Amino acid sequence: NAIVRMEQASKAFDSPEGGKVHALRSVNLEVRRNEFLTLLGPSGCGKTTLLQSINGFAELDGGAVHIDGEDVTKVPPYRRKVNTVFQNYALFPHMTIGQNVGYALEVEGVGKSQRLKRIADVLALVGLSGLEDRGPRQISGGQQQRVALARAIIARPKLLLLDEPLSALDKNLRHSMQIELKTLQSELGISFIFVTHDQQEALTMSDRIAVLQGGIIQQLDAPRAIYDRPDTIFVANFIGTSNLFEGSIDGAAIKLADGSAVAFDGACSPQENGRATALIRPENFSLVGSSRFSGALDIIREQVVFAGSSFEILGRTPSGRKVTATVPGSERARIPAIEENSAVTLHYDPATVHLIYDTASQG
Ligand code: ADP
Ligand code: MG
To answer: Which of the residue ranges 44-53, 216-225, 271-280 would you say has the lowest mean pLDDT?
Structure first.
């Protein structure tokens, strides 16, 4: 009952340097109805190719795509029940805003009075009431992006694809559009597949995030799970700041090469070689130990940065591993004692330590 189902989807391009670029490698993906799903990953990881295999602009080399229960693998783009909003939203320059937005209805043969009503409704939805008669060059970039969005949703598709639609906007506008888009998606009750390379944007907006690298979905999960429990080192490093400690599992701790240890709480499923990587997010450190914050890690402080509600402490373990800790402003009384090159003990709750078993990226 998924709105989109991809099975073993593969796509390769001829590389300019000769050989092949594998843009998608046997991708399996199910997108739920009414879901805000984000494809997140660095440039060149295959995000646009994945979208284009859904809207039909890219033909797969292997595998299948289903939209709303129908196998569309061989169906041409114009016959697929899906709309796309592009990064460069290219409005028709010689048409008014109203004509741009109503274009799909005109093609469908919807009568004029009905059309005008639906144009007015959808413009109201994106906050552009009354701008029907303006030209695309008489409105701002942010307004043009909303027009592109209105144009894409007026025919009420069940599925909307958005390829980095906010990347051309400045930071403030981008932030307010993030919230508006999310609200709009839940009001419309349609599925969005949204592409971004911005992890903050993905965490803010999504019901689920698919993290891509090298044409492979590394992890598909809710934002919280992606952040707290990344499956791979790549995902841990790509989302947020990570302190990673690789070593061998010894009881309820990871023993590091330098003799120190990171405690964890809960089950572990060691690999055959008994190794794992412990992840501690910066905000899970404290300068104060307690029965709960029973884990301790000694570092040499290099820098302390005041960030308003918190302090960032940058340092290294005795063996030289970089560590970043974000401690709450309430611990400010302890900060003056932390001089440059002084030893600092960072405390953590072993229950917040996450283990990654990722043979591929360990070394
Ligand atoms: P993203 O959108 O994540 O930046 P793309 O899907 O555009 O990534 O590209 C994935 C890979 O496929 C990249 O290495 C890119 O250079 C390559 N690629 C995409 N489209 C083409 C094309 N039309 N011809 C050749 N290579 C392409
Ligand atoms: Mg792209």
So the answer is: 271-280
Predicted confidence at residue 319, as pLDDT, reads 87
Q: Is 306 in the pocket of ligand 1 (CB under 6 A)?
A: no
Query: Is the CB of residue 13 below 6 angstroms from any atom belonging to ligand 1?
Result: yes
Residue 319 burial (CB count, 10 A) = 10
46 ligand 1 Cβ < 6 A: yes
Reported as type and span, the H/E element at residue 183 is: helix 171-188
- Ligand 1 centroid vs 49 CA: distance in angstroms? 6
Nearest C-alpha neighbor of 82 from the set 210, 209, 192: 192
Tokens matching residue 170: 């400045």
Residue nearest to atom 6 of ligand 1 (CA): 46
Q: Give the max Cα distance, the chain.
A: 77
**In this predicted structure, what is the pLDDT of residue 270?**
62
**DSSP conformation class of 123:** H
With a cut of 0.95, is the ipTM above it?
Answer: yes
DSSP per-residue codes, 290-315: -SSS-EEEEEEEEEEEE-SSEEEEEE
The ligand minimizing its distance to the Cα of 47 is 1
Q: Whose CA is nearest to atom 21 of ligand 1?
A: 13
Q: What is the mean pLDDT of residues 130-151?
A: 92
What residue ranges define each of the domains in the chain, with the CATH number in brackets? 4-228 (3.40.50.300), 241-361 (2.40.50.100)
**CA 51, CA 352: separation in Å to the nearest integer?**
35
Burial of 342 (0-12, 13-18, 19+ CB in 10 A): exposed
Verify whether ligand 1 is closer than 6 Å to residue 52 (CB atom). Answer: no
Structure tokens at 30: 């199910």
| CA dist 30 → 35, 56, 66, 193 (Å) | 11, 17, 9, 11
Q: For residue 235, how many other CB atoms are within 10 A of its CB?
A: 25
